[in-house]
Amino acid sequence: MKIVYTEVLVIGGGLAGLRVAIAAKRRGHEAIILSLVPPKRSHSKAAQGGMQASLGNVIKGQGDNEDVHFEDTVRGSDWGADQDVVRMFVNTAPKAVRELAAWGVPWSRVQQGDRVVVINGQNVTITERAEAHGLVAQRDFGGTKKWRTCYVADGTGHAMLQAVGDRAIAESIPVLERTEALALIHDGGRCHGAVVRDLITGALTAYVAKATAITTGGAGRLYRVTTNAVICEGIGHAIALETGVAVLGNMEAVQFHPTGIFPAGILVTEGCRGDGGLLKDGDGHRFMPDYEPEKKELASRDVVSRRMEEHIAKGKGVKSKYGDHLWLDITLLGEQHIKRNLREVFEICHYFLGVDPTKDMIAVRPAQHYTMGGVRTNHTGESPTLEGLFAAGEAACWDMHGFNRLGGNSVAETVVAGMIVGEYIADFCDKSENDASIPTGLVRDFLQREQAKLDGILLGSGSEDPSAIRVRMQEIMTAKVGIFRRGTDLEAAVDELQKLIVRSQSMGVRSRAPGVNQELVTAYRTKRMLKLALSVAYGALMRTESRGAHFRQDHPRRNDADWLKRTLVTWKSESDTLPTLAYESLDVKRMELPPGWRGYGAKDYTDHPETAARQAEVDATKEKYSDRFERQHALMPYDHLLPKPVRGRNERIDERFPERGSSPGEGTPESTFAWESE
Amino acid sequence: MTQTTIPIKKAPSEPPQPVTTGQTIRLHVLRCNPADPASDAHLQTFELEQTDGMTLFIALSEIREKHDPSLQFDFVCRAGICGSCAMVINGRPGLACRTLTKNVGPDVTLAPLPVFELIGDLSVNTGKWMRAMSERLEAWLHMKQPKVDLTRIEERMEPELAQKIYEQDRCIECGCCVAACGTAQMRKDFVGAVGLNRIGRFRLDPRDARADSDYYELVGDDDGIFGCMSLLACHDVCPKELPLESQIAFLRRRMVSMGFK
């Protein structure tokens, strides 16, 4: 029995996991990262367009601050988000951008003076301020009032992953590449680490840790058509669910990105539309203003994706042998802009579609893109039901995105959550009562159980083909649990997915190699993915309203009176074929921004009975304060929820701090620092 | 489906004929499984039907799903951005995920990248190599100020300079440059164009505290800049079209002048 002890076990080597590990290491706690792939190959890399943070450096971002970012994010979430967490996030995001700048991210910078940009299909000259010259630049993105998306050309995630990955190397944090966590070790109340499989040798090892963090990203591969990398199979979600104790939140909230290239589903960034690109139909008509006169192509992703599908359903799409699609037209941005700021888009179009986007339009159709649901945690990132288990990033539901995430908020969340949750994990490890004390018998039980499961597949006599089951699951999800959902379809989906779970009990493999064996991997992952697929489909069936990305054609209104609540999913027993659902109400009386119209999309919704009273209270409070910080504090104090090292206000050109070195007085912020490694 | 073992032969020197949809294509894959001492390296041929827009990612996935579950290869993003799937395609290192079969067929020979540790078939351990290189070259930004206040406005940088740094930061560590490198075949500790490019990137960055004398300590020898024979296959095969030729030449000049000091 091989056991490795560490203080912090981080499962997942993308941006969130790396940043969590760095935070823990800097506080003196040994951390080990497990990763399916070399960390710099993680899916964080695919975030092309940018990272939202209200720096307000560009002229179109002037006046931006945490308050505006907060409101955009909550509206984007269709009021599903935890507003405390959103506040924590928006206040930390500028610090995260500045930390990354200190660590070497070559953020695109503001050039003072005139420049021509494309807004609403027109060339417009804007003038950048001299005092902003050389500061981090922002571009426009969907669902935002201000230009807030900080970017590195269109390789933002790549550049961030370089810098944070480099930092992890500088901190000597070991990353065990090509390893996979198969199960969390726990005693029903406390998580003690994980059983881990070496994907090259097939050997199992128990990693016993004080704190275990799930940072495994999304579950896009539940769907047939997705922008997600092939490793985004939701296994972190699944091993949490399989404890029967940890809870998943809002799994039915699945985002579809408007511009997956057709038919491969590879993403082209929202930056295309942010920078002025247009969506056009089979007649070459720009159709979005017909549906969304306010935000047009730059409404939130759920709204744009639905409008696109609606337009295709009207017969306005472009016919092709793979089905219908629409066009994304960025030719109006000009060759120089495309080859400089949208170069990955240029390469993707060139290599995969054989088109030149400076001259030709790009075939697009919405594709699965983001998993808003995740391991339910409190604001510290810890599971409220399984002590010592933490989660951060796309794998978590702490819950920043509610039912729809804004573009640029996910890559921002990875590092922000890494900073915040990493500090809380360090706090957790600081306490001697949290030292690992675990009977080796428990570890042995978990190891043996996982080995037995693997042997059952490898050496058993099952005849079901894992690939076939998996493909069928993906087809069901794309066809019946997609952008438009109906009760009858969802019932059929749940029914068939349950049958697949039963069939998955007798999967067999042709290749009996104990080490590298993709068929074996497909088999054991598919079993877990089916549980997630059912969590999504069953949650969607039960939620008889429409909210954010969850749209029910048979219940098209948002219904705050009955559904202003979070779905909680547990998987009680290995013999179950359905998850157990429970619900957690959101407290309107505490909301800084009570539910209302999002500013785009449907205008009719059913109010929560407490909304009017809370709105009146909020309005009255706002009247009382002219200072935005005092006003915010009176409405919904949140500062105490942040770990001390990341608290403090954010300086901007239009909100200068007193000169450095001046005596600290009222309004002087606490400071957060980026440190060079020891 | 025919799966015959044929002797290893040289990659075709003629440019391939474009393949049409529905045509049969043949993938000749170099099979080798170090985990199984009984297995010998051999080429195995897989036939499949060309479909529209088929990439080597789609073709290899189909082979593994339908014909041979033991075939080993690595894909992650399948969009040309993560660098996982570099392999030798008709004798030339490249990214398999964004290689359309119609452009390289109907006969495609696939082999794993040389230099790197072979895991099996087309899968090599580039991650391990890259981490070791990064540790040796201290390939992270060495902060000039040991402590930066994150609540304050960030330090300024000229937009053109930020753009130039990003140009060098675009490396995806796929390993193509190392696989194509003459020196890397002879010197196992040669840092390759990927390593030299990293040093060039930090040299350019005013946020990095290091001076040329520090970089000389890291790459001023035959495992570094002076090992390069200027064959520059790295420049030719780089999937991200990084300006490796000029970067290496420039770095060499700087390091030579350091050597004379």
State the helicity of chain B in percent bands. 25-40%
Please tally the β strands of chain B and state the result.
9
Low-confidence stretches of chain A: 662-669
Number of helices of chain A: 18
Number of helices of chain B: 10
Overall average pLDDT of chain A? 95
Tell me the strand percentage band of chain A.
15-25%
Dominant shape of chain A: globular
Largest sheet of chain A: 7 strands, mixed
Globally, the shape of chain B reads: elongated
Chain pair sharing the greatest interface: A-B, 87 and 68 residues
In quaternary terms, these chains amount to heterodimer
In round numbers, the mean pLDDT of chain B is 92
Helix proportion of residues of chain A, in percent? 25-40%
* Amino- and carboxy-terminal Cα gap of chain B: 65 Å
Kindly provide the radius of gyration of chain A, computed on alpha-carbon positions and rounded to a whole number of angstroms: 24 Å
Task: State Rg of chain B.
Answer: 21 Å
* Helix and strand pattern of chain B: EEEHEEHEEEHEHHHHHHH
Q: Show unreliable segments of chain B.
A: 1-10
Q: Main β-sheet of chain B: number of strands, strand sense, barrel status?
A: 6 strands, mixed
Write a structural description:
The complex is a heterodimer of chains A (678) and B (261). The two termini of chain A are 35 Å apart. Chain A is α/β, with parallel strands linked by helices. Chain A has 18 helices and 25 strands. By secondary structure, chain B is an alpha+beta fold. Helices cover 34% and strands 15% of the residues of chain B. Chain B has ten helices and nine strands. Chain B has helices spanning 56-67, 101-104, 126-136, 159-169, 176-179, 182-186, 192-204, 212-219, 233-237, 244-260; strands spanning 5-6, 24-31, 42-49, 86-89, 92-95, 107-111, 118-120, 123-124, 147-149. The longest helix of chain B is centred in the last third of the chain and has 17 residues, at 244-260. The termini of chain B are far apart. Mean pLDDT of chain B is 92; it is low at 1-10. The chains are: A alpha/beta (678), B alpha+beta (261). At the A-B interface, helix 3, helix 4, helix 10 and strand 25 of A face helix 3, strand 9 and helix 4 of B.
